[in-house]
Amino acid sequence: MAEQTNPISKDLKSLFSTLADIPEDIRIESPLHQKQILIDGALREWTGDFHEVYSPILISNKETGATEQLLIGSYPIATTKETQEALDAAVRAYDGGRGAWPAMHINERIQHLTRFVSEMKAQRQQIVKLIVWEISKTVADAEKEFDRTIDYINETVRSAKQLSNQTNAFQVTQGFIGQTKRVPHGVVLCMGPFNYPLNETFTTLIPALIMGNTILFKPPKHGTLLFEPLLEAFSSCFPKGVVNTVYGRGRDIVPMLMESGKIDVLALIGSSRVADALKKMHPKSNRLKSVLGLDAKNAAIILPDADLTHTVREVIAGALSFNGQRCTALKVLFVHHEIVAPFNQILVEALKQIGIGLPWQKGITITPLAEPEKPAYLKACVDDALAKGADVLNAADGGGAIYESFVHPTVLYPVNSAMKIYHEEQFGPVIPIVPFTALSEPVEYIMNSPYGQQVSIFSQDTDAVSLLIDTLANQIGRINLNSQCQRSPDTFPFNGRKDSADGTLSVDEALIAFSVDSVVVTKQTPENEQLIRSILETGGSRRLTNEVSF
Ligand SMILES: O=C[C@H](O)COP(=O)(O)O
Questions:
Q1: Choice from 149, 326, 371 to test ligand 1 binding pocket (greatest atom count within 8 A of CB)
Q2: Which PROSITE patterns would you find in this protein's record (predicted)?
Q3: Does 57 have pLDDT greater than 70?
């Protein structure tokens, strides 16, 4: 990869702007110092240590021309003491299913959530701004993330109402009457990733809440401040102890939560390495329920008859949206040897048009990377590929250039199995291209991969496509035809095989994942049928307390 002093790296440097040049509506006027944590329904003033948050978007100093870091806020570094209190609060609020929240009728829980959504909508501008500054997502994508999250909650509410209607019915079979209730699991630990900090945290938190579980949630390392505007709403919209925040260094506080054995569900969207380590810490790991969205190395298989212009458009969106920092991104391209030369040429040409800049500028795809260690990692991947015989195809147009948190899109060709980039999930704007001859080559790659999230197939050849679908369906969660890999529409099943996922994260399936069936059964007699009917009319949210007597 090119050194930071080369002309193209200097061009990247010039993309950072001075504070005065940032549009007012997105400018951070003063850092957001978060001073509270939410435990047991109360917003507690924090008097301990704070973690300072610097944006990946550097600021250009008008006088010196140097680029500088910008402090955008700080948040509490909670200790094991507060973490224990948060855990105790969640356990108390669940109370073996007798707590106010799990015992509440689902329709009433929906009312609490609806109030929360209206308060959340009032915070849209502030949350969008924080997403932009914390992880350097474009304003358009940050707005999309916010709006998509609201849509996701609304869809979840719609689906939960349907589920509630289903459980208000009973089934008669073989002389028995059965009425199935869906009940929560208990205490859920929710942790989302930095790339969709709001959306993917809520992808687990919302269905878990709606189904009556109580929550501990730890915001992602990059993407923490954006939850600050929601703390008040969490506190006022839900009974105490139902939602508790856990802030601080994951390595210091998450192990104790797992080791306590009191976490019933681990809901994590992140890395399989972290998921495996956390699961092992639980004393009853075989009984721990996991809902996981993990790593992926999604491949595109581009066949000789593919429409190359269309394919290149999809590949660029698939590999480079949000700098390739998406679990669903296309991370390796298998291109048939007969068309690899024209494909590469069209790709390199198209990449000249890609927008590189700051999140508030129009038409931008590539922005500074969110993780400070990522540019060095990508440089190592590219250097390794170059040393083993690949070229940076778009080097003349900036491919390989790096300046601080900016990494220029980089096309590597020809890539082979000896290279790091062939196997590892780069999570950045590097596009490795592997030429192939026989269909069995990309198929073997997918079969042998530890991951199995998605694949894209580009072709109109029915025989080849249906053969690939039949061969890959049990290896892969989603097969995309003539389009990039992606999660949306969010109502489609979102899952994966092997180290890519555990459970399905979409609307209906997530409600199922965060609850379990409990069936009430009786012999079919007129009296019992009447009993079941009466229970259905009066029950569903009754709660045994010391005051209840018969
Ligand atoms: O990072 C994983 C996200 O769920 C991807 O969602 P997306 O495909 O809509 O960008």
A1: 326
A2: ALDEHYDE_DEHYDR_CYS (PS00070)
A3: yes
